[in-house]
Amino acid sequence: MSKAFHIAVIPGDGIGPEVVEQGLRVLERVAAIEGFTARVTRYPFGAEHFLKTKEVLPDPAFEEIRGHDAILLGAIGDPRVAVGHLEFGIIARLRFGLDLYVNLRPVKLYAAHLCPLKDKRPEDVDFVVVRENTEDAYAGMYGYFKKGTPDEIATQEILFTRKGTERAIRYAFELARKRNRAKKLTLVDKANAVRAMDLWTRTFEEVGREYPDIAREHAYIDAATMWCVKNPEWFDTVVTSNMFGDILTDLAAMIQGGLGVAASGNLHPGRVSLFEPIHGSAPKYAGKNVANPIATVMAVSMMLDYLGEPRAAQRIEETVAGLLRSKRIPSLGSDSGLSTRAVGDLVVESLERAKVPA
Ligand code: IPM
Ligand code: MG
Description:
Elements: E1 4-12, H1 16-34, E2 37-42, H2 47-53, H3 59-66, E3 70-75, H4 85-97, E4 102-108, E5 126-132, E6 142-145, E7 153-156, H5 162-179, E8 184-189, H6 198-208, E9 215-220, H7 221-230, E10 237-240, H8 242-255, E11 263-267, E12 273-277, H9 294-306, H10 310-325, H11 340-350
Parallel strand pairs: 1-2, 1-3, 3-12, 5-10, 8-9, 8-10
Antiparallel strand pairs: 4-5, 4-11, 6-7, 11-12
The chain binds 3-isopropylmalic acid and magnesium ion.
């Protein structure tokens, strides 16, 4: 009997539903080729649903979603709703509620012409960022004192736990070993100014001793952004805290061709995990059939790899890489001249021919 996966899908806001639609067509096609099935349950959460019902992500739905094998999310965020309300109620709720402690963000350039950096080739831009995903300033411990007065004080805790730091770092060492490329892990922090990050320094050293085959490197976040532009080939596997990872991976997305290709996995190894494009809901392009769905297609690829279907994952990746190299998909923005659906068509039609190991 072929394997059957149950996928919870939250298309969300803005361009989310359009790009997810194409991601699901690719999923269905690759499943047929590789011989498994994917059963999809759609959830309506996002701005439209919130404005109609005042519901963000109700508990029973959260529990139901938890029962799936994986979650595919489009994008969340809408100018009609207060800043952060849906982001925290849906994205953060899933990340924290499901304890998805790793945010895995591959940075891979598929075709040299997509890179804004001079003289960088695909072999120069191929690294992966392991972003800690459940702590730091995102823990939601904030408050105001004397709010709205000239004496107002606002605070938000940047918090790190030994457990949270260690599990992200350990995941990253394992990944550096599994990638088997430069066998190098770079810790990115700001321990020179944020002294609480000494916890990262010490944990990295301690855990690192268990991985003598992996070289340990270090860069402060400010320097890391500089290296990312100047010498991206210097990176293989990177591990960093939640907020630095958020910032670094938007920059990194640009050197791999833009947010139109960048995908991420929010993982708790062994448990239900969530996959999404890194880009946002881009309200100004919503409903216009111009958004590029490739990042979501790549999120589907990551999801299948996670679910134990590496051939299907590779088939999608090879297909996308081929279409980008040949310029049949000429760019990754909304200006490619191809509609959202047309890009989906190209991927779906080309999957069969992708070269994957038997
Ligand atoms: C991301 C996003 C989110 C984050 C926002 C939407 C809360 O920027 O996934 O990188 O900051 O984590
Ligand atoms: Mg971000």
